[in-house]
Amino acid sequence: xxxxxxxxxxxxxxxxxxxxxxxxxxxxxxxxxxxxxxxxxxxxxxxxxxxxxxxxxxxxxxxxxxxxxxxxxxxxxxxxxxxxxxxxxxxxxxxxxxxxxxxxxxxxxxxxxxxxxxxxxxxxxxxxxxxxxxxxxxxxxxxxxxxxxxxxxxxxxxxxxxxxxxxxxxxxxxxxxxxxxxxxx
Length: 185
Known about the structure:
6 strands, alpha/beta
C-alpha cells in the first residue's frame, strides 16, 4: 500500500471538546499502532481532508513519525476552499499549524462550501486516489464516518481496496496497554 486515506469521527461526536482531553492520547496511540507497520511495509502518503478530530490528530501522528520515517508524507485535500471559515479561533490555529507542515495541500472543489455533495465528492476522491482507508469508526455508534465507510465498502466489492477500522474495542485495548505501561508491569 502506497497511499492511505485516514478519517473518523469529529471531536464532538466523541464528546471531546479540547485537544488535551485524555482520550486524544489514546486515539493517537491507536493511529500510530496501525500506521507504523504500514509505513514499514512501504506506505508513502497519508491523505486527510483536514476535518477536525481524527484527521487532524492523524496528521500530528504522521508529523511525530517523520523523525523515524522521514519519507512518509501528508496530503491535505479539503472538500472545498476555506472549510475552516466557521471554526473557532483555536481550531483555525490548529488547522493552520497542520497545513503549515503538510507536504501537499489541495481542494477537491475549487470553491467555497455550497452543498453536501462536496463531502460525497471528497469521499469518492479519497477512495479513488488511495489504496486503503484507516477509519476510526464503530458501527455501533452512528456518525459522520459512516458515509466514507459505506462508500469504501461498495468500492471494495469491485476493487482491491483495504479497509482497516479502529473500533471502540480497539481503543479500549490501547487504554489497557497504556495503563499497564504506567503501572510498571
